[in-house]
């Protein structure tokens, strides 16, 4: 019996690669495995992306995805590794930058979760700088992040 095929993909291309392999493998729609593999993206963006001067959704770490296939070239799973998380961003942001998205998402969802005792983002020392991003709804981002956890 042959070993399953493993292909390593950088996250930016993972979604396109999975769609390609699903099509080549004869799948007309996303399989549950593919949905789960893609679901980690909103979670990783929330906890690892931040607004920088040049990019409103800049990844502050690297993501490495390895896709796993069966002998029929259907996606059967994936492994993801992260590296080089910019930990200093948690305690310091340059002017017009902000901390990781998840902190703002949680504060925007504070009315739904009063037991968390969260306040406005600008009341917290490490997230008060540059709280809003034009065109970005942090409450919707929190819902997407939360739905990704449910999917996984």
Automatic annotation (TrEMBL):
What's the gene?
Answer: LOC103510963
Family per UniProt?
Belongs to the TRAFAC class myosin-kinesin ATPase superfamily. Myosin family.
Give the organism the record lists: Diaphorina citri
The entry lists its GO molecular-function terms as: actin filament binding; ATP binding; microfilament motor activity
Checking Gene3D superfamilies in the record gives: Kinesin motor domain
The molecule here is called Unconventional myosin-Vb-like
Any Pfam family: Myosin_head
Start and end residues of each Myosin motor domain: 1-152
Q: Which PROSITE patterns match?
A: MYOSIN_MOTOR
């Amino acid at each position: 019996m042959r070993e399953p095929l493993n292909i390593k993909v950088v996250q930016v291309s993972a979604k396109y690669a999975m769609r390609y392999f699903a099509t080549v493998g004869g799948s007309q729609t996303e399989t549950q495995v593919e949905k789960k593999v893609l679901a980690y993206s909103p979670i990783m963006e929330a906890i690892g992306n931040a607004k920088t001067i040049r990019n409103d959704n800049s990844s502050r770490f690297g993501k490495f995805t390895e896709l796993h296939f069966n002998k029929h070239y259907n996606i059967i799973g994936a492994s993801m590794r992260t590296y080089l998380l910019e930990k200093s961003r948690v305690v310091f942001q340059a002017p017009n930058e902000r901390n990781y998205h998840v902190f703002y998402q949680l504060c925007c969802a504070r009315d739904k979760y009063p037991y968390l005792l969260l306040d406005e983002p600008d009341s917290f020392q490490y997230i008060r700088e540059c709280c809003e991003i034009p065109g970005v709804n942090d409450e919707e981002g929190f819902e997407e992040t939360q739905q990704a956890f449910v999917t996984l």
